[in-house]
């Protein structure tokens, strides 16, 4: 019995030690990054930023990207120790999320950020002197497109382009500021946006051309349908307009739009 007691005492201390170690391990608390944001680093690369978890500084961060049209995320950075990362998506758009690693435990952000442009289904846009709205513009908060009358100066802050026939039988997509001097003579003076228009473009999902005065002009003749037009707005946004379904009798087009909510980013894959 005397020999057994020391052995039992040693075993008890071992058990207590294991329990203590287990308790220490379970006390390691981690958390997910918060406050994810995405901005344009250049006109074709993006910067993802976030806040460190409230629980403390993790060992590292992992950044994930899901390309538009795919079903899963891929790891694009797995050893980040700062709270930002610049990604070159090679012309692609998609969704980002970030995870914090505490030891072997991964805590993924509860929110994601996206560079996918906001799509607006086809809307009817009329020639300036035809019946119906001839102006079209995108909401800077939601990215949604809508049509507007060019005969009301109150709409100047909403319009990004309009359709006109500067010359008989030739239709054009034009910057709103061209309205007051348009031969149609129905657009009042106002603070109409001075936007640039590029086209016809050949690839609907390719990055839009970088803004340049040799590429973007105050109007483009609609030489074909569908007609793809890149829009660079006065306030620094990129968008794509697709003009199709021309109705010669009504002098209307069916216009679909894609607006890139990330200011200065010309990626438009959708």
From TrEMBL:
CDD domains: FN3. Residues 32-123 form the Fibronectin type-III domain. SUPFAM superfamilies: Fibronectin type III. InterPro entries: FN3_dom, FN3_sf, Ig-like_fold. This is Fibronectin type-III domain-containing protein. It comes from candidate division WOR-3 bacterium.
